[in-house]
Amino acid sequence: MSVMSEFKQFAMRGNVTDMAIGIIIGGAFGKIVASMVNDIIMPPIGLLVGGMDFKSIKIVLREATMAGDKIVKEAVTLNLGNFIQTTVDFVIVAFAIFMLIKGLNSLQKKKEQEPEAAPAPPPAISNEEKLLSEIRDILKSK
Question: What is the pLDDT of residue 14?
Fold first, then answer.
């Protein structure tokens, strides 16, 4: 089997396709969460703490070196604001995934708790079958 045919067989499995769909949807979901955090959650929090824009929270480790109007060396900073926003993004995504898994687990528990249907009773024996059984029994006894 050639490498290409093995790869095609691998790529066409259901699990790989499902995973690819999950990654695509996860990327889109991540953008929605990032927008929600950046555009909806963080501005009111910034307003509550004195009108601060969290993206601008930085600790400067080394100032930029300038030669006139030209930057010779960039400033070295710890971007705490971006870290805070990324942490909030993570918490929201983790909570959403937790709620999804919790919902799936509760559905699974309900499914496990449902009583299984009793097996259907065997169909009634017809007159022909009764007669054939009697004939068989008579022939066995002789």
Answer: 65
With respect to residue 85, please indicate whether it lies within any of the assigned structural domains: yes
pLDDT above 90 covers a percentage of the chain that reads 5
CA distances from 115 to 22, 89, 109, 118, 122 (A): 33, 42, 12, 9, 20
Here the CATH number for the domain that contains residue 92 is 1.10.1200.120
Structure tokens at 93: 């995504």
Domain interval for residue 92: 3-113
pTM of the predicted model, to two decimals? 0.52
105: three-class secondary structure by DSSP:
helix
pLDDT of residue 76: 92
- Quote the number of domains for the chain: 1
